[in-house]
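Service request form, structural biology core

Requester: graduate student, group of Dr. S.
Request type: structure prediction, single chain
Budget code: on file
Notes: please return the result as structure tokens.

Sequence provided:
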Amino acid sequence: MAVPFFDISRQNNSQKAELDQVIRTVIDSGRYILGENVAALEKEVAAFVGTKFAVGVASGTDALHLAIRAAGVGPGDEVITSPFTFVATIEAIAYCGATPVFVDIEPNTFNVDPLAIEAKITRKTKALLPVHLYGQSCQMESIMALANKHKLLVIEDCAQSMGATFNGQQVGSFGAAGCFSFFPTKNIGCFGDGGLVTTNDQALYEEIKVLRGHGSRTTYHYDLVGYNSRLDELHAAILRVKLRNIGALLDARRRNAAFYAKELAGLSHLTLPSELSGARHTYNQFTVRSTRREALVAHLKAAGVPAMVYYPLSLHLQAAYSSLGYKLGDFPVSESAQSEVLSLPIFPELTSAELASVAAAVKDFGK
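Core staff response, request fulfilled:
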């Protein structure tokens, strides 16, 4: 059986009547930029995450960039983060003229190791940027304690983790800002690029709103060099429909993950993902490890089962960031992960037969 890695059309078809209605309403309104749906989505996401404010922007990358800039991070500053994440995390730091400083990751969660952070803090360190990778929260209690001890900002990269919690608290509500992506493959996604920043800091909230609209507080008067980073009204309307169903969507991801965990337990050629104590994993990706990854990927492909590698080369080894001066061997846990990780299909609408087909193909490789 051929299994899709991701198929957003299934989710859209299940919500077609409601989506068609809101899309038609937006089209008929003639208001397509920063309208009532954007304002409503911002309030609804803030309520869901548990913050006072939220600002819709054009993408998850922009959410990081604008949050970092609005927080006052700039040239000469250092931001501590993970080398094992999507490049947008450090692009946003570089856009602001600051320097990303890497610390290694935990082998079981793939998230930044809080025990490695303090040794990298210098007088130039301005912020910590934990990435809640694959849908699981970092150890935010430890990270916030370090930040408070050293008087550092915390900006959370929540691109893959909307709905994830740590000790019952939503990611995106711990630090100065939480940065979300609404790319179609995320826990809730729009029909293109979209992003959002959550915060409890009113000054930060106001600054991001100014930055997203060309640096203007009053029409045609520009106080800052800003950006064109506004969330489209159509995307916001679609996201409001998806947000109302996020509980069911995340429950389905967790059910799929539980099925894999049960079916694939005990396989000698595979290490399954683990859920951090106190965390609620949302499984934006179901990422396993195999020391025979390339052979396993080829086997799965032949069986009609796609697998993706997130990420094949850690950021400290990327050519674009060679000026940072890192080399092979600097972050051995991250480098080990890049050679072993692969993600199996996990999206909410997978059928029982498709899940069984994936599990059977993985087990067959072990034979």
